[in-house]
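Hi team, as promised in this morning's meeting, here are the two structures we talked about. I've kept the exact order from the run log so nobody has to guess. The first one is mostly here for context; it's the second one we should focus on when we meet again. Sequence first, then the predicted structure tokens.
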Amino acid sequence: RTSQAAALATVSGSADRQNEGSGEVQVRTLTTTNIGVTVVQTVVAGLVIGTTARGVRGGIEHSDTRTTVDVDAGAMVSAWDVRFGLTARNLRQPEFESGSGMVKMHRQLRVGAALVPRALPAGVHGPFTFAIDADLTTTPDVASGDRRTVAAGGEYWFAKGLVGGRAGVRWSTLGDSRRAFSGGVTLRLPRSVHGEGQVTKAT
């Protein structure tokens, strides 16, 4: 279930007004419910692609809902200890009726890279991971301004792979940076059980 703020213009025109396009701008929420099926395929060694077909039901508050289909896709390339990825959401850019026009779910593209050396005793978890990813497209946000987000973070495993610590930061490259910091700890317990805790602080 996702929500997106949308700006809707309400025009109160009159015969003596020169600008018929001006008027009150209201902010309403587009809420969608998604059910998807994902298919992942290894194309060649080191290249994996995936696609998710989603049934999307949603609408603007106080307006009729509709059901449509959308598609997400992604790809990851692995070479030695480095991975590169690309994701794409809302490829069909579904639209929903607001009563005063159509509201579109904009296409979103994001690219990332990670350094992921793996060695015993941390195994598949470490000893460490460093990753950075960034939006290639701008995400409209009428509530707090358009954003294009970049995020970076790392993880390190201690005590022979029993304890993992991580930290990260994200910010927008447009307008107000809206920077946020996060940190977390994972404790690996017997029988493949993990205990986790994390905190995020926005500035």
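And here is the second protein, the one for discussion:
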Amino acid sequence: ANINVTYGDGTFTNTLTNSGTSVGTGAGTVTYASSIPSVASVNETTGLVTVGNVGTTTITATVVDGANYTYAVKEISYTVNVARKQVAVPASPVATFDFTGNVIAHGFTAPTGSSIVPAGTVASATNAGTYNIILAVDSNHIWKKADSSTSTENQTVTWKINQRNINLTNIVGLTAQTYTGSALTPSYTVQDSTPSDPTELVL
């Protein structure tokens, strides 16, 4: 028999059932064992199975003859298949900022079961634009894409720095001009009114 579970499912019990009358006083003692405890471990006496890492293991129940009963079949087993847990690929952009003229870090945290791959990832930037973050899943997880397909391959998501709309309202440095009879070209500076990050156009 096969039991299919998913990484992170927790525990379950699939104990040996005695189909005859050999129960009670003098019945045999049943013990349980797992061939690969890291995939699924089992309580030796209760048969409670704890799901572990992705993989396949065999759970074996063994009975020894009791004082009043003997058993023609002393061992029976079943297979536990632990599948990868699905992780949704985050929708892009995973973070959005407005241009400030300063260095901006994306600040994104990878979903549980995945990590950010430094190679190919732009961790911070200054200029407006779209930047990549490369994500990888671990051996116990699998990506679920927007179209519901799955993959263990690295996935690329993006983050953005938007162009900032400026409000050029402050005129600085414009001085009084003296009539000369000829065309005059005054010099002055037009500033963005945002005090935290003034943008200037010198004219």
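Starting points for discussion:
Confidence is low (pLDDT under 50) at residues 19-23.
Residues 4 and 43 are 19 Å apart (CA to CA).
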